[in-house]
Amino acid sequence: MLAPRRQYDAASVVKPIILGALMRARGGQFSNEEKGLAHKMIVASDNDAASALWRELSTTGADGRTRPTGVEQFLKAAGMDGTAPGPGGAFGLTQVNAQDLVRLLRVFRGDGGVLTPAEGAYALGLMHEVQGDQRWGTPSSAPEDAEVHVKNGWLQRSDKAERPADRGDWRINSMAAFTGAGHDYDLAILTQNNRAPLGAPAREGYRYGIATIEGVAKAVHSGLNPGPAPVAASPREPEARTAAASASHTSAGTGPRPTADGTSGLAIDAGLVTTGLAAVVVGRRMLTRTVPTDDS
């Protein structure tokens, strides 16, 4: 684990949290409209759909302030105490940490009884269907026989950012669960301050962030799954919008090391982590492989 509880602006990796909150609030019984919004929010990363569901999960208090109470209730039930919902309707400014995102993926797979098996399978199913141009990041170099359930986030900090050093920088985040064919592990990587070189187009910072995450992901996958890895998918172009937000730079090292809590540590440039530029958490369930016996 690297900086597992350091908070970053979520961008679109908050969308699976919104989905989890909606499922818990509705008991898995969505209206047709909600089902359509959930599909667009996860598969196409549609911001309007996310905003609509965020509003449905919000209430207005006597002071006139709106709070995403449904999201807050889900976070409490899931034990995601390091996640703070964004103010008002700014779901993308939710503060998340890598440990909580791995916790969310485990909740989708049944941990804690927060969601029913059908609800968790529905969430992972939508993440499995994420459109091809958004399947970059943590799935890079994953084993070919793994089922990949992914959600990414990308957001450019406003040119009016409070800290001049952050102005125009990209926040690039990626989370995924890897299942099937004996695979059962999760990976969350959050990054910040992905900057385009002076005079270069802004999209270069976006691409740099993706390359950073994919370098880390390659180290993780090769450590957990020795052998040849597939070629990574090509990333999509960033959305033409800016907002006050947060992402990172890292260089991959030698692969995961098991830790006492079932997650793994990864050898990455420690200086980048201590300065807050990256957070990485690998969650892995230890599978017991059964050796068949000859009963004849």
List the helices and strands and how they pair.
Layout lengths: L7 E2 L5 H12 L5 H12 L3 H10 L2 E2 L5 E2 L1 H10 L16 E2 L1 H11 L8 H12 L18 E10 L13 E11 L2 E9 L11 H22 L27 E7 L4 E6 L1 H5 L3 E7 L12
Antiparallel strand pairs: 1-4, 2-3, 5-6, 6-7, 7-10, 8-9, 9-10
Helix pairs in contact: 1-4, 1-6, 2-3
Number of domains: 1
Total number of beta strands = 10
Could you give a short account of the major beta sheet? 6 strands, antiparallel
What is the CATH top level name? Alpha Beta
CATH architecture: 3-Layer(aba) Sandwich
Strand arrangement within the widest β-sheet reads 5-6-7-10-9-8
- Please give the alpha-carbon distance between the first and last residues: 46 Å
CATH topology: Beta-lactamase
Shape: globular
Helices, by number, come to 8
Low-confidence sequence ranges? 239-276, 286-296
**Share of helix, binned:** 25-40%
- What is Rg? 19 Å
Strand content bin: 15-25%
The secondary-structure element order is EHHHEEHEHHEEEHEEHE
Q: State the secondary-structure class.
A: alpha+beta
Mean pLDDT: 81
Note down, in words, how this protein is organized.
This protein is α+β, with helices and mostly antiparallel strands and 296 residues long. It has helices at 15-26, 32-43, 47-56, 69-78, 98-108, 117-128, 203-224, 270-274; strands at 8-9, 59-60, 66-67, 95-96, 147-156, 170-180, 183-191, 252-258, 263-268, 278-284. The relative contact order is 0.17. A hairpin with a 4-residue loop joins strand 8 and strand 9 (263-268). The strands form three sheets. Strands 5-6-7-10-9-8 form a six-stranded antiparallel beta sheet, with helices on both faces. The chain has a single domain (8-284), classed as Beta-lactamase (3-Layer(aba) Sandwich). Helix 1 (15-26) crosses helix 4 and helix 2 crosses helix 3 (47-56). The chain contains eight helices and ten strands. The chain is globular and about 50 Å long.
